[in-house]
Amino acid sequence: MNAALSKTTKIRDVMTRGVVTINEDDAIHSALDLMVEHRVSALPVVDKKNHCIGILSSTDLTDLTKAVDLTFDEGDGDSQDHFWASAIIRDHFGAEMVSTLMTKDVAVISMEATVQDAARAMLRDRVHHIPVVDDHNKLHGIVSSFDLVKVLAD
Predict the structure, then answer these.
(1) Are 9 and 112 in contact (CB under 8 A)?
(2) Cβ distance 12 to 99 under 8 Å?
(3) What is the per-residue pLDDT for 7?
(4) How far is the CA of 53 from the CAs of 5, 64, 127, in angstroms?
(5) Among candidates 123, 117, 129, which has minimal Cα distance to 44?
């Protein structure tokens, strides 16, 4: 596929369907578990009618570590230290609700938008994932910067 053609490719043709989602009332523990289990770095947050009301990304979770002192006196960087750091973060923040960390003012995109539209939105908002919704804000997929790179690489 050449670059000119890829600019007009529709999001519906490159988005990931069957998106792993989470609810705003779920615990951060659940979000961490879902991200690890499904190997994803963002979870659209949906209500009971599958309307996209936010997004929780690995960046949101990484920001948690800024509030925790992860320095250690001995054993710089050994696996025991990493285990304890992970446990500290899970114990300290894991019970909080997703709604406390999620991005509520989430950029969304239509299935009929082009990959160029998505790329521009990602650059404008400095994000790597955009939920794909219909006219009623119902979630149908997600598009990532990786999806866009794949289109250009093909």
Answers:
(1) no
(2) no
(3) 72
(4) 32, 21, 16
(5) 129
Q: Model pTM?
A: 0.78
- Per-residue pLDDT tens over the stretch 78-118: 555 545 555 665 666 667 899 999 999 999 999 999 999 99
Strands of 129-133's sheet in order across: 109-110, 129-133, 139-144
Q: Dihedral through CA 74, CA 77, CA 83, CA 85, nearest 10?
A: 80
Structure tokens belonging to residue 133: 């919704």
Rounded distance, CA 117 to CA 130, Å? 11
CA dist 101 and 118 (Å) reads: 24
Q: What is the pLDDT of residue 1?
A: 46
Are 91 and 68 within 8 A, CB to CB?
no
Tell me the two tokens of residue 23: 């609810």
Beta bridge partners of 53: none
How far is it, in rounded angstroms, from Cα 107 to Cα 103?
Answer: 9
